[in-house]
Specification:
Chain lengths: 109, 906
């Protein structure tokens, strides 16, 4: 099965959107969720999620707290902050602007 | 605010670093394990599942590092590692570390200490308002009292008054008595008298300087407008603290100086020590009191009693040259306007010739400066050279070490260390070394400058001088040494990390065994040798000058003479009154009669104490030039006490009284000057004005003695008995046998049994007094010898380091040569030869530098020329020998090597 690399710079957007949708998730759930919803097209190198999450922690977009999984294991759960929601809006509008521009270029044949 | 909370989060992470790592690890493990489970459920074997999960996750270590680095603290962590590693590396080679640290510490410490003293003596501005606008009339290099016409060094009080009122260029003008009155007075309510240093100043002194009182008020113009009735004093902060324990009620305390009681009206601010660097008066008293402060100099209304220094503050916008022309115009007008001016042809010519120079006074006055500015500059040059040598040494040691480590660096690079990382580590190590040396240097400087001040003070009370460490120079020397450490610690790093790794890894057998491979290190050794030679020759010259000075014929016997000072004017005696003469005679008689005392006498001066001089005239002799003779006023036993041989005539005797014929004993040199023909005994001459009452008869001729310093040529000297020339005495000399202490105690006891109120000070030996006159020569000789030896030592370390390194690099070559039949002595010579070549080049460069440099110090030398061949040759020989010894150790190691071991050596 062929999998596409995610476009550079969109990892934050994907994580933010995923968290905004579900509320609270740990790292594996985030990776899994991105893959499933993209119908396994978007393939994250799963580990690269973690440095990204650290950067988002520094920026204050997400917060983390330890909880327990369904399988009764300790896991770190991430959720969006107010700043994170604002960032999501910014990234979304930016993304749409870019995609819109690209779409227009492609369609103007 | 965002950046602030972000910073807080980053800091929080820094504190909880370990927790952070553990959390991240756990989180990642969970992820991989969950993925693994999922794969197993999807039907993979456990092994395949684990591999798949790991593959999908990526390189966990790199990811962990990336997560870690995101927080931005990696530089700090690697810095910590570097420091740890660097300290371990320093401890691993303790000898190298100690030498490097010592070089740094001495380089930094000595420079800072000497510069601090130099700064305090020569450069620092007075702590007053706008010191740059202060000027002095004349050059300020004379103190005393004179009545000479048209002198520009000292001025009379009436002259000061007129200058102040009539000039158009100064915003204010002040007068300072050119001597301090070092007397004994009483703090009211205390029984014992205390030594007090009184500075007489005009009422405008503090306002001209712009110094405000710390407590109470300073002197003002009203304190100085009529003679004798303004008994007020401003005391120094230091004395307030020392003598009054900072009594807040000090303004109600009183002082008794001589017969007069003074009100303390104020305390000067803490930083203000006066206007003379190296002297700190306890109090300032208005000049209107000059006649009643012991020893009662007087001259407040005398137009030609010239004893004052005049300083002034330039009006804004007035240049020095404008001020100079105004001052010179007034100088002429005022002098010619004095009704008692002696306008002889000679004096008028003198006035025409004379021009008053104006000297900037921002840095204050100082006799210390005259005495020590040259020695201090020489020492500054010496320590600067030592700093250079120390830097060369550090450079050499670091070069040798990091070259020796090039393989280690190559291995680390091969294992994946980034080049920047390795360079950063070497920089950190060098910095660590330099900073540790710097800290030691600061510690050394703070000890050294106090030691230095004590050496400069020459055994007397420590000169009151603020020699606290000079931050500017400290920073400068630190910067120089740190830069050296950085440059030479990292040059090899850049070089080493650029090389082809495989070459370096294979090295040891490489082709770089040839000796020409290390030109930088060799250049450093050569310059060290050259600089050491300069310092050694300098030290040799100074030591030999000191030796010559110590062996000069002084004309009197300085051994076994006790000398002390008696302040009889503070105890109420007036010079010349019968009571005072009787007191002096009684003290001389009673002390002479003590056991172990052979003779005792008062004198105005002994040696190195200033002088009283005047021009003399021989009646009938027509001389165009003034013959200046220095006078000494002595007791009858002076020649016996000092053991100055009388060459003709007789000594003074009790029959020379105030009513008998006035007599004088003249020195050999004076006899030749005044009476070139015939026997001088019984001849006459006159002091100054050629008046009959100044006539004296020569009764004896004494051997020439040194009077002011050991290096002087014979001067014209004569001696008068104190019965005929009243003198407010200081000096009392006692020739004794046996131990100093019992005699000193007995003498003081005897003096106090005659009058218990007589203050006695400065009890010491004549020998020490003579030694004190060459304090600066001794200072320069001792310190330059110390630094010369230090320089040689450092150079030897440098030679040893470089040669050890060379031998190490050539081990294989040595092995091959010996396997081919070279003898041990050949090996020894091969290495030694290289050293001797280096040292010889250093000497060849050093000799002309030395000859050029030593000409600059010729004024400090005595009894030899700057190009003294003996010193030059012996310094060169010593340097060669010591260098050969330093090189012998590695050379011997080379010659003792087992060829098999040497061949296998890597």
């Amino acid at each position: 099965m062929h999998r596409d690399e995610i476009p550079p710079g969109t990892l934050y957007l994907l994580i933010l959107k995923t968290l905004a949708r579900v509320g609270e998730m740990h790292g594996y759930e985030i990776a899994d969720s991105i893959q499933r919803i993209s119908n396994d097209v978007l393939q994250v190198e799963e580990g690269s999620l973690y440095p990204a999450l650290q950067r988002m922690l520094i920026k204050g977009w997400v917060k983390a707290k330890w909880g327990t999984t369904a399988g009764n294991r300790r896991a770190r759960y991430y959720h969006l902050t107010v700043a994170g929601r604002k960032q999501l809006e910014t990234e979304l509008s930016q993304f749409e602007r870019v995609i819109g521009a690209i779409t227009r270029v492609i369609q103007t044949a | 605010m965002d950046w602030l909370s972000e910073l807080l989060r980053r800091l929080w992470m820094l504190i909880r670093r370990q927790q952070f790592d553990a959390d991240l690890k756990e989180e990642m493990r969970l992820h991989v394990e969950l993925r693994e489970q999922e794969q197993i459920q999807a039907g993979l074997s456990p092994r395949e599942a684990r591999q798949a999960a790991a593959r999908r996750f990526g390189n966990a270590t790199v990811l962990k590092e990336k997560s870690h680095m995101a927080w931005g603290w990696d530089w700090l962590e690697s810095f910590g590692q570097d420091i740890e590693y660097g300290s371990r590396a320093m401890l691993r080679s303790p000898a190298l570390t100690i030498v490097a640290l010592l070089s740094l510490a001495l380089g930094i410490g000595a420079n800072t200490a000497i510069f601090s003293l130099l700064d305090a003596v020569m450069l620092r501005s007075l702590p007053v308002r706008d010191p740059a606008n202060l000027i002095l009339l004349g050059k300020g290099n004379v103190s005393g009292i004179t009545d000479d016409f048209a002198r520009t060094q000292l001025y009379s009080y009436p002259f000061y008054r007129q200058m102040r009122e009539e000039n158009q260029v100064f915003s204010d003008t002040a007068a300072i008595f050119s001597m301090t009155n070092d007397i004994h007075g009483f703090v009211e309510g205390r029984i014992e008298s205390e030594p007090m240093s009184v500075q007489l100043v005009s009422g405008t002194y503090f306002t001209t300087l712009g110094v405000r009182a710390f407590v109470g008020r300073t002197l003002d113009e009203a304190d100085d407008n009529s003679e004798g009735d303004h008994s007020v004093a401003v005391i120094s902060y230091a004395w307030w603290k020392r003598g009054f324990a900072r009594d807040p009620n000090v303004l109600n305390r009183k002082l008794k100086l001589g017969a007069t009681t003074y009100n303390i009206i104020g305390v000067a601010p803490p930083e203000f020590f006066g206007t003379k660097v190296g002297e700190a008066p306890d109090m300032w008293v208005p000049l209107s009191m000059v006649k009643v402060v012991p020893p009662n100099y007087g001259g407040y209304k005398d137009n030609f009693s010239e004893s004052l220094l005049i300083m002034a503050r330039l009006k804004p916008g007035i240049s020095i040259s404008e001020a100079t022309s105004n001052v010179n115009l007034l100088f002429r007008q005022i002098l010619l306007g004095f009704p008692d001016a002696k306008l002889s042809q000679e004096n008028l010519q003198e006035l025409d010739r004379t021009k008053v120079p104006l000297t900037p006074m921002a840095t204050g006055l100082s006799s210390l400066r005259r005495q020590f500015s040259e020695p201090l500059q020489i020492l500054m040059a010496v320590v600067a050279l030592v700093l250079l040598i120390a830097c060369a040494n550090i450079a050499n040691l670091l070069l040798a070490r990091s070259t020796a480590r090039s393989r280690e660096l190559a291995v680390r690079q091969a294992l994946g260390a980034r080049r920047t990382r390795i360079i950063r580590q070497l920089i950190t190590e060098s910095l660590l070394l330099a900073l540790a040396g710097g800290v030691l240097g600061v510690a050394l400087a703070s000890v050294a400058n106090r030691l230095l001040l004590r050496m400069v003070s020459g055994g007397l009370d420590t000169i009151p001088l603020d020699v606290s460490i000079d931050t500017r120079l400290l920073l400068f020397t630190l910067a120089v040494t740190i830069a050296t450490a950085l440059i030479f610690g990292t040059i090899p790093a850049f070089r080493g990390t650029r090389v082809q790794l495989t070459d370096t890894l294979k090295a040891g057998r490489g082709p770089q065994g040839t000796s020409g491979k290390n030109p930088l290190a060799k250049a450093l050794v050569i310059s060290q040798v050259a600089l050491s030679l300069v310092l050694m020759v300098g030290a040799g010259l100074f030591l030999r000058s000191l030796f010559n000075l110590n062996n000069v014929d002084i004309g009197f016997n300085k051994e076994n003479v006790l000398r002390l000072e008696i302040d009889s004017s503070s105890a109420g005696y007036t010079p010349g009154e019968p009571r005072e003469v009787a007191l002096n005679q009684q003290i001389e008689e009673r002390v002479s009669a003590l056991p172990n005392v052979k003779a005792a006498s008062f004198s105005a001066f002994t040696f190195h104490e200033g002088s009283w001089s005047s021009n003399v005239v021989v009646p009938g002799m027509n001389t165009d030039e003034d013959i200046n003779v220095k006078h000494n006023v002595v007791g009858a036993g002076y020649f016996a006490t000092m053991q100055i041989p009388l060459l003709a005539g007789r000594s003074f005797s009790p029959s020379d009284t105030s009513t008998s014929q006035t007599v004088a004993i003249i020195s050999e040199h004076t006899a030749k000057t005044l009476f070139p023909l015939g026997n001088p005994i019984g001849r006459h001459y006159r002091l100054s004005d050629n008046k009959p009452e100044n006539d004296v008869t020569v009764i004896g001729v004494a051997k020439d003695v040194k009077f002011h310093d050991l290096a002087e040529e014979p001067v014209n000297l004569d001696y008068f008995p104190y019965t005929q020339h009243p003198w407010s005495f200081g000096d009392f000399e006692v020739r004794y046998t046996g131990g100093f202490d019992p005699v000193a105690a007995a003498v003081q006891q005897t003096i106090h049994s005659i009058d218990r109120n007589l203050p006695i000070t400065r009890v010491t030996t004549l020998d020490q007094q003579v030694a004190r006159s060459i304090t600066n020569q001794r200072l320069v000789a001792q310190l330059s010898a110390f630094f010369g030896l230090l320089a040689v030592f450092l150079s030897c370390i440098g030679i040893y380091g470089v040669m050890s390194y060379v031998v190490m690099r050539r081990t294989n070559e040595i092995g091959i040569r010996m396997a081919l039949g070279a003898r041990r002595s050949n090996m020894l010579w091969m290495v030694l030869r290289e050293i001797l070549i280096l040292v010889s080049i250093g000497v060849v460069i050093g000799v002309p530098v030395t000859l050029a440099g030593d000409r600059l110090v010729s004024k400090m030398l005595f009894g030899l020329k700057p190009s003294d061949p003996v010193t030059l040759v012996s310094a060169t020989v010593i340097l060669l020998i010591v260098a050969a010894i330093a090189g012998y150790l590695p050379a011997r190691r080379a010659s003792l090597m087992d060829p098999m071991v040497a061949l296998r050596y890597e």
